[in-house]
């Protein structure tokens, strides 16, 4: 059905470049919304707490808006600079309701409106786009989301066991309600999206996953802790900045290339003249090269250089040599798990210093 | 942008059959959601009434789900028998929340669960699909929706002026909040969708409009009155039943045909052998022919007959002769206005007998 509607794409990192159905994320996301909707009477029937139901509904509404916008993006292929701000639009219901809700509960406390709004919109934009940027090989988008979700749930369980205050417990239970169905459904999707992928998940899934995390972080009041589980994404984003903001030339696709003979992935490169790059770009290249994150070679034409693209995937290929797509995906998942473990230990080991 | 994504269709009732962008409804619907979201702080900030905010959010969530499903349908072209039940899925958030909400407010009153649920799901399915069926010529979907919305608002204003009880007033204000932006945005869309159309609205719009009416009818507690404004849709649906349920052969498209020489619309026909039709079908044909609603002729091949399709559009062409597309659309809008006026007078003139 997706094929017929033109919702399909070529898997560029396979020898025969097969056509795969795209936007499978929209099914999973729809199923997720249905499950959470069916939870409403289970969780709230007979309880007099309207305030938490309001939060829950605003969360669903924001996720639903994000899925809608993500699917529109998949179908219409919006421009990059428009896409970045879709999560801001979708997070409006959540933020406005949160604001109204807090306004009712703590009406005496003046809320620093702009600062607080800005932070949370940033969170929504960051969560969605950082997952969307760290992508390009089979299973990576879904895999990293599952790992992050599992670590957030671990954090929630620890918090509930510490039992600091009833309000805190409730926030963490809320997060679990949201993430258990998310993880289950994502694992099912991962089965089909893992190498060799039978389906693509589309931008819809990245937006959906990112928005779910943002919602959980905002309403669960642990957005700072959550950032600790996004370390690879933060690193990848900062690393990408010189290319994303055109300080260094950026090709259309930055994912690794397939070496057809060996069947392994190799670095993809951007080729350009060093004189085209301004001083900031040159400094970036120098620093990143010194750190061993990028590879720089003279091109066949003596005056030009080729430089590996600024993504964490390319850096991994520099450090570990050529890898098959499956191995690179595994490596990235291990990296994510390692980073999340580090984040969790920072949260509970050094939290006195940070918070 | 919609063209590039394959979201376009031919306008079959024009001489040159131009390609027009489709699914424009999704923009309007998205804008509508944004406007209603921005209303949240205006309406609810500082008020302690969480219960109405819960209703409002569940309404937005249902409409958002419906838009998402409608757009998925536009892109994927779902089968007819799946489409019919999409509104039931989308109305779940509304109904479950309503149930929970009532459960809190009137917890002592046992609600006849199944009966009540069934009624409201029926309402959602009816409102969306009846608008979707009465379609096929430029401006008709949007035009009828605007007329219905205006009459519902008239009803609301009358109710508010009668000022029977504060609860009733609040319900009617709620309906106005929902319908004023809807009407404004639909009128803008109508400007581009009216003959000769520059855009198509897609199933997205029909679902969106129908769901908005269903939500307003359910939460405003005037679903029976609303049915009075849907008389042409009810008539068209009942009239279509013999073809929809295959008692009489049903061609792929049932909208009128264009006579290229005169530039006017003429009846479209289904051709078949009378012996193919079972006894129920024959009775339907006999009754409808006696009422002058359908036209039956001998086909060129003596053994077969041709029969005008069972839609209100075809009946109008029988009564009034060939009409241009613009005139037929105008006629239908007048019919809708007339039917709504009749409905309104029934509601206020004979309400003692009916309610």
TrEMBL record, chains A, B:
Give the record's GO CC terms: endoplasmic reticulum membrane
Question: What GO biological process term is on the record, naming one?
Answer: dolichol-linked oligosaccharide biosynthetic process
Give the CDD domains listed for this entry. GT_GPT_euk (cd06855)
The answer to whether the entry has keyword Membrane is yes
Keyword Magnesium assigned: yes
Location(s) in or outside the cell: Endoplasmic reticulum membrane
**Reactions catalysed:** a di-trans,poly-cis-dolichyl phosphate + UDP-N-acetyl-alpha-D-glucosamine = an N-acetyl-alpha-D-glucosaminyl-diphospho-di-trans,poly-cis-dolichol + UMP
Q: What is its EC number?
A: 2.7.8.15
Q: Which co-factor is required? A: Mg(2+)
List the keywords (alphabetical): Endoplasmic reticulum, Glycosyltransferase, Magnesium, Membrane, Metal-binding, Transferase, Transmembrane, Transmembrane helix
Topology relative to the membrane: Multi-pass membrane protein
What does the record give under GO molecular function? glycosyltransferase activity; metal ion binding; UDP-N-acetylglucosamine-dolichyl-phosphate N-acetylglucosaminephosphotransferase activity
> What residue ranges are annotated as transmembrane?
24-42, 54-72, 84-100, 120-138, 145-162, 174-192, 204-222, 305-322, 328-350
Q: Which pathway features in its UniProt record?
A: Protein modification; protein glycosylation
Query: PANTHER family in the record, alphabetically?
Result: UDP-N-ACETYLGLUCOSAMINE--DOLICHYL-PHOSPHATE N-ACETYLGLUCOSAMINEPHOSPHOTRANSFERASE
User: What family does this belong to?
Assistant: Belongs to the glycosyltransferase 4 family.
Q: What does this protein do?
A: UDP-N-acetylglucosamine--dolichyl-phosphate N-acetylglucosaminephosphotransferase that operates in the biosynthetic pathway of dolichol-linked oligosaccharides, the glycan precursors employed in protein asparagine (N)-glycosylation. The assembly of dolichol-linked oligosaccharides begins on the cytosolic side of the endoplasmic reticulum membrane and finishes in its lumen. The sequential addition of sugars to dolichol pyrophosphate produces dolichol-linked oligosaccharides containing fourteen sugars, including two GlcNAcs, nine mannoses and three glucoses.
Protein name per its UniProtKB record: UDP-N-acetylglucosamine--dolichyl-phosphate N-acetylglucosaminephosphotransferase
């Amino acid at each position: 059905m997706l094929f017929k509607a033109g919702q399909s794409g070529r898997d560029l990192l396979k020898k025969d470049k097969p056509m795969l159905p795209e936007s499978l994320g929209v099914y999973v996301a729809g199923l997720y919304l249905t499950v959470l909707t069916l939870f409403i009477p289970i969780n709230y029937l007979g309880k007099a707490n309207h305030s938490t139901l309001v939060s829950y509904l605003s969360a669903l509404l924001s996720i639903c808006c994000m899925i809608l916008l993500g699917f529109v993006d998949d179908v219409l292929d919006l421009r990059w600079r428009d896409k970045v701000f879709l999560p801001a639009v979708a997070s409006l219901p959540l933020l406005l309701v949160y604001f109204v809700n807090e306004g009712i509960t703590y009406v005496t406390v003046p809320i620093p409106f702009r600062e607080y709004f800005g932070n949370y919109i940033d969170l929504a934009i960051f969560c969605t786009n950082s997952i969307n940027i760290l992508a390009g090989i089979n299973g990576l988008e879904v895999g990293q989301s599952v790992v992050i979700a599992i670590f957030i749930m671990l954090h929630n369980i620890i918090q509930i066991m510490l039992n600091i205050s009833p309000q805190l417990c409730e926030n963490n239970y809320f997060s679990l309600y949201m993430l258990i169905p998310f993880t289950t459904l994502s694992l099912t999707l991962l089965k089909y999206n893992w190498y060799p992928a039978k389906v693509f998940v589309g931008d819809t899934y990245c937006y959906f996953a990112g928005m779910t995390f943002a919602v959980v972080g905002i309403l669960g009041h642990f957005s700072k802790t959550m950032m600790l589980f996004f370390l690879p994404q933060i690193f990848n984003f900062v690393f990408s900045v010189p290319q994303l903001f055109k300080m260094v030339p950026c090709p259309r696709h930055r994912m690794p290339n397939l070496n057809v003979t060996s069947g392994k992935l190799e670095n993809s490169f951007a080729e350009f003249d060093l004189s085209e790059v301004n001083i900031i770009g040159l400094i970036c290249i120098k620093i990143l090269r010194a750190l061993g994150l990028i590879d720089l070679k003279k091109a066949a034409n003596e005056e030009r250089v080729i430089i590996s693209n600024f993504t964490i995937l390319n850096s991994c290929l520099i450090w570990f040599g050529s890898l098959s797509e499956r191995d690179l995906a595994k490596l990235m998942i291990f990296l994510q798990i390692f980073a999340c473990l580090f984040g969790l230990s920072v949260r509970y080991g050094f939290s006195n210093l940070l918070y």
